[in-house]
Specification:
Number of strands: 8
Shape: elongated
Structural class: alpha/beta
Largest sheet: 8 strands, parallel
């Protein structure tokens, strides 16, 4: 192992040991996106708020502006936002430490094979964004390098990502509709139910501007939920407008925890918790009737 990898593994172990006890199965990712526009003070505030609201991960996006191909973003203002939001190695280290201090995990989306290597120093998990699910070299390299890969299926066709179901050990198929924000009638939750038939590692990455898409996904068994997150919808970057707030994330967390507890399979017969009622109350109004009718 390279010394940086060892440090990264130690940090991950330390972070895991601080995760909240009693947390149930559903994992929740707070997607910070570019909502903090490179302001690390604001990033720290968002990470802390996500942790306090029940998120398991704070997620960012990693790229190098120098590798950006020419496009409309060169003239419509997006490139300026990309420049502000580019995460240097120093900023990544800060974000990892913010997550450690808050007791949640660091996660990042990756858009290029070259960005996988520095990210592996900080986490053994990675997110591949929807439009890149057809980028076979990127996806296959991430599967090789990381213990867990969250593969978004936004703006992608079934034949472009179904091939990765065979990697059942470390790939989560994340249903996603790449529309910002996404109207309710286009959420297309039946697509996630198809994923449920394909693999037990599936989830939902939602872009609705409220919590109901996440609630529906959890109700249908999603193991992972991702929602864009902010502390203030009036912040400059456009994604803040449809991102959920801390109280929204807390509501999703509450529902997920209650849902997971209620879905524990305790069999088809009378539970131990019911025995006092069964033994003490059954037939209590049957006095004077043939004892054979009683238990």
């Amino acid at each position: 192992f390279h010394i940086i990898e060892i440090v990264g593994i130690c940090r991950q172990y330390w972070c895991n040991s601080r995760l909240q006890k009693g947390r149930t199965m559903t994992k929740i990712i707070a997607e910070l996106s570019m909502n903090f526009l490179g302001d690390m003070g604001l990033a720290k505030e968002m990470v802390q708020a996500a942790a306090e609201s029940g998120a398991d991960y704070a997620k960012v996006q990693t790229w190098e502006v120098g590798r950006l191909v020419p496009g409309k973003w060169d003239t419509d203002g997006r490139k300026e936002d990309y420049i502000k939001s580019e995460l240097s190695n120093k900023k990544c280290v800060q974000l990892v430490r913010f997550c450690e201090d808050a007791g949640i995990k660091f996660l990042s989306s990756c858009f290029s094979e070259l960005d996988l290597y520095p990210l592996r120093q900080y986490s053994n998990e990675v997110k591949i964004p929807g439009p890149e699910s057809s980028n076979v070299p990127l996806v296959e390299k991430s599967i090789e390098m990381f213990d867990t890969v969250y593969l978004s299926t936004g703006a992608s066709n079934l034949d472009e990502f179904a091939r990765y179901v065979k990697f059942v050990g470390n790939v989560y198929l994340m249903h996603c509709v790449s529309c910002y924000p996404c109207p309710d009638e286009y959420v297309n939750m039946p697509r996630m139910l198809l994923f449920k038939e394909m693999t037990d590692k599936f989830g939902y990455s939602g872009h609705s501007d409220d919590i109901w898409d996440a609630i529906l996904a959890i109700s249908h068994g999603a193991k992972v939920i991702e929602k864009h997150f902010t502390t203030d919808r009036n912040l400059p970057f456009k994604d803040n407008k449809f991102s959920i707030l801390p109280e929204d994330l807390a509501a999703i967390r509450k529902y997920a925890d209650v849902h997971d507890k209620m879905m524990i399979d305790r069999g088809h017969d009378c539970q131990e918790i019911e025995m006092p009622v069964r033994t003490e109350y059954a037939r209590r109004w049957c006095g004077g009737i043939n004892e054979k009718l009683r238990f």
